[in-house]
Amino acid sequence: MPEYSMRTAPRFSIVVPTRNRPETLRHSLATCLDQDFDDYEILVCDNSDPVAAAQVAEIVKATASSRVRYLPAERSLAMSANWERGLSEARGEYVTVLGDDDGLMPYALRELDRLASRTGAKAMRWQRGIYTWPTIGIEGEANVLVITLSRTVTEIEGRAQIAKVMRFEDGTDSLPMIYCSAIHRDLIAQHRAVTGRVFLNVYPDIYSGFGFGYLVGTYLSISTPMNIAGLSHASNGVATLMKEKKTAVASDFSQLNEAFGYRRHPFVPDKMILAPVHVADSFLHAKDALFPKDDSLVLDRKAITERYLGAILETDPLERSEVRQIIRASVADNAELLRWFDDEAPNLPPASAHTFRPRRFGFDGVTLSLDAAPFGVKDVSGAVSLTASLLGIDGQAIPFDLPSLPDMRAQVEVERQNALRAHHEAAETRRQMHMDITAAAANTADLVSQAQAWRETCAQLEHRLSEAQRMGSLRYVPKRLARKAISLFRKPPTVA
Fold first, then answer.
1. Residue pLDDT, tens place only, 205-226
2. Which of 17, 76, 108, 384 can bridge 103 by disulfide, Cβ–Cβ 3.0-4.6 Å?
């Protein structure tokens, strides 16, 4: 493979933000370098403390690749600020962000380049795989690998999809989040032109889905995984969504966000582990910045509050009461909502903690889930290799011609609805034709009746005329005879 040239702008930039996780970063970088495509750069945005930063620097040096750019931070940054720095430094036409415990599929850049060349799409979103590292630190959650087996590409209208997500009919990863999408630099520049930066809240991945989803118009949605999202013991997602007690990672995350001015939206509870908080906070920040007057995209605050209540993990009555008060504070600005909360808000049973382990391993028509440990997988690089083998994708272009079972069911439903619509239209046409025929028959009967009446009238008129003529003839006969007789008398006799 030719060595990457620093003199030209690459097709892709892979931004890898990292903080104190050199042990996972080395495997992530290995997957980034194992690509069957050449025109790209890798930016390691190191936000680590000094000891870990030294290790990260050594890992980058050991790659011996000029395509890897090492960008150490001068001081500890909030996650969103570090991501912002990475996007500012990226030179690629398309940019994606890869976590330091994630892996990039070996065919990813090749296929994204092909799709971009064919469609000119400004955003290409894909269904990422999931891998939980052996070190995740949550009982029962280690060594899970979940991937989609379908191969489809569809075009999605961004604003319609945002509305669907806010009705909780689909997940935020269905949007063009830069964490599982390749975003064109023009779209990034467009966002910056409106807001001054790209990431506006503490959840840069989720926020980017709403921000780019609103601005892009339409984007490609790819069902084949282009990356594997890893979850390890130091993942922010694990710390804020899967662990009930606040960890050192979660505390560090909160403190840095506060220091850099990334704060939650006032309309959401100050409780990160409530899963809907991440969605609502990101949507509200995007709405305030990008579409404050778009009434087609709004947050149903009552409905989302019920979701907060349904996401409470605590079982202790006192702790549950404390969380309810935190949720109540998020609607304190609205007197009507506050009355509803105090008088009618449901007291739902405790929620279960988020889990990636399915009830049973296997294929469910959409995804294949399995225990990766028996396959010898110990890290995300191994998870990427196993996934590539399972998908059977070689150096040839991927034929995006294999829908999932739900896709096929959806298509069957579309065809069923089309057939039903055609049946209704045919029935309506027959009904209208019957009505037209009935009306025509009734009109014909009226015309026949009128014609008959006209014939009878004409017959009567003819009879009266005949009578009048006959009577007129009888009345004037004597006069004619008298005139004839007189004329005969006055006429001189004819000479013989």
1. 999 999 999 999 999 999 999 9
2. 384
- Those residues with Cβ within 8 angstroms of residue 233's Cβ, 6 or more apart along the chain or in another chain: 133, 135, 136, 137
Q: Which two tokens stand for residue 407?
A: 């896709």
Positive or negative, the Cα torsion across 122, 126, 132, 138? positive
Q: What are phi and psi of 232, to 5 degrees?
A: -120, 180
Three-state DSSP at 77 gives: coil
Q: Which residues of 233-270 are buried (b: 16+ CB within 10 A; e: fewer)?
A: bbbbebbbbbbeeebebbebbbebbeebebebbebbbe
Alpha carbon separation from 253 to 20, 206, 246, 256 (Å, rounded): 12, 16, 11, 6
- Cα 6 to the center of its chain, rounded Å: 36
Segment (H or E) for 328 = helix 317-329
Among 312, 153, 311, 297, residue whose Cα is nearest residue 211? 297
φ/ψ of residue 223, rounded to 5:
-80, -20
Tokens 């009618």 sit on residue: 344
Distance CA 296, CA 448 (A): 59
Dig out the tokens for 26 from the structure: 């080395």
